[in-house]
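Forum: Protein Structure Q&A
Topic: Joint prediction for protein chains with partners

I've read a bunch of threads here and the consensus seems to be that you should model interacting components together rather than docking separate models afterwards. I'd like to see that in practice. Below is the full input, 788 residues plus whatever partners are listed. Could one of the regulars post the assembled result?
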Amino acid sequence: MGNLLIAHGGGPTPVINSSLRGVVEQAKKQPQIGGIYGARFGVEGVLNEAFIDLGAQSEAAIRGLSSTPASALGSCRRKLKSDDYPRILDVFKKYDIRYFLYNGGNDSMDTCNKIAALAKDSGYEMRVIGVPKTIDNDLMHTDHCPGFGSAARYVAVSTLELWKDVQSLPIHVCIMEVMGRNAGFITAVSALARKSEGCGPHLIYLPERPFIREQFLEDVSAWHKRAGGVLVVVSEGLCGPDGAPLSDSGVVDGFGHKVPGGVSQHLSELVIRELGIKSRSEKPGLLGRCSIPLQSPVDRDEAYQVGALAVRAACEYKTGFMVSITRECEDPYRAGYGLVPLSEVANAERKFPDNWINARGNDINPDFIKYCAPLMGAALPDYIDLDLTPVKKL
Amino acid sequence: MGNLLIAHGGGPTPVINSSLRGVVEQAKKQPQIGGIYGARFGVEGVLNEAFIDLGAQSEAAIRGLSSTPASALGSCRRKLKSDDYPRILDVFKKYDIRYFLYNGGNDSMDTCNKIAALAKDSGYEMRVIGVPKTIDNDLMHTDHCPGFGSAARYVAVSTLELWKDVQSLPIHVCIMEVMGRNAGFITAVSALARKSEGCGPHLIYLPERPFIREQFLEDVSAWHKRAGGVLVVVSEGLCGPDGAPLSDSGVVDGFGHKVPGGVSQHLSELVIRELGIKSRSEKPGLLGRCSIPLQSPVDRDEAYQVGALAVRAACEYKTGFMVSITRECEDPYRAGYGLVPLSEVANAERKFPDNWINARGNDINPDFIKYCAPLMGAALPDYIDLDLTPVKKL
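Posted by a regular:
Agreed with the consensus. Here's the joint model:
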């Protein structure tokens, strides 16, 4: 017997609340779980003893979590210091927390791993389980991460719509910037919007390959000659061959971090200046991680399942694991679930596989499309094309 | 008897194809209309005699236009020169075009007006009708413009989702940039996302008021102290008190036009530098004018009706008019349709009413919300909020 506490870490996703729903609905079924608490703003809420009672919420509110964006509990980006950990354990003891679930990415899994070890070492009986979450899809030892499928659907549909726009008014090189500082998965998804050869997106640049300025200008110029309107999709994290970010604003924030300068705007200015071609940039930014209309139903369901499974695993005396997703069947797609030791995912970072990028580093190979397509949960919208056969000239 | 030709001018909207569907389906019912042609890429298609046969398209394709973004015909931004007009009349005569519909904004209505006058003066019997279209909502003598309601829905839902994100991870000042270079209507729509006092968007800046740097920094700083996470929405067209664009990239494009520098990025750098607060920018840009998942059903239906009415008006011997929308009933909202002389809308520009902006120039008055709400076609998504009552501290 004891209480359960769940906390969110890092940036929200369109389905992190769906995992929360899975946790709460599963926890209510477990007789050994007493109170079901949520920490406000991640580990900060743990340190401050700022909890809400998830067991006391209305059923409608818990159901509504599945279609509510961002984190309903609040999240944080606080990196814990070594003296924060004993304090956390004290709080757990004070509130009789015997089940702790942490829903986050690499950094959060590291925190989770340390908490699990600390509890074990100090002889306090509790179960600590990580619930995966990241739109970047960069956690190790899971086929993919909850949050990725929805971010993917957002990027694929947005790219398709942008291509329809650029195609119908082909007067510029349009450069869209996509999140994922170090991992190119969501940028790569834009390739799924290409209906046939010659359609946009024409060029795709991931952060896993060094960005070669001269090749980029050559490629843009060639596509402009061929298509008039050109659609380019780039990761916000592009770096040059020297490893330095392609664009930084020259501004340093309060924490001393360099502020990225908006790589799409930087590149569109480059196109105008060097090629004399009209260009513009789009940067949906955070909008790509909070869209409910473009949520993937597969992603939403999987997010629910990983939350529910985390509770069941904790109740089965498991601790120090993260829930993982496996691909049980390719066609029709079917997911399975497992557990991986937190120590194997903590702080490790999965990169976009190099063999899924083409030789020139400006496009994606079909293997990725096969990997990604089912995760978006539904086919892309079937926008029509008119029959453009010209009327015979008189 | 004679043929009908329709062309698109200027930037696409999420419902310009819905107007096209209205035109085609209505034209098929009119025995006096022979061929139904569409010009490829606006007036360029007229000059080049590049037409497609809209009467020969499948019914499914025509139906599918309502849920297909951008312009299915193609559009252009070509400003006609005086010697282009006689050429256009020659093409009309050659193809026996007796009904010409031009679907566009202010510039297109000016073109349309000149074509109508030229046909009349030269004694060539034809009817010329303008079909309104612009996400900017800046056409005169119509309650609102087809395209605005869908762009409004995009901005309102995006602002709401962004606020959920910022609220759940309140670590920065988030500045979203919205289209509408000279008219603030779609930027103002963001106010509809504010569920209650204190919720985002906290600050809204339209291009109709000069942007005062010091006031902006004061306002951001005050909201940051109060809320932690701050959401600001700005128009891409903000200018300082001297009338100069707030931010230009220092780059001049092939046509000699100054390229805007991304006002949201400029302002977020200003916040970091002057206030030492973490800040970031989002610029969905063109995505705001091509989203089908966020299309307004009211807007889609009205766009269909203005297309159909343009055909009926032309068949009733009307020429030199633009179809307008009137507000027949406020509650429940019901639209009516009329005709206004093209001469009265050509080149005129409707500004956001000054009395709908607050005194400090950083927010919108409730009258605008009442005006705008029904045009979005449905209530905003009902995202849930958990009961955040703190668990009693032990």
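Chain A is about 35% helix and 20% strand.
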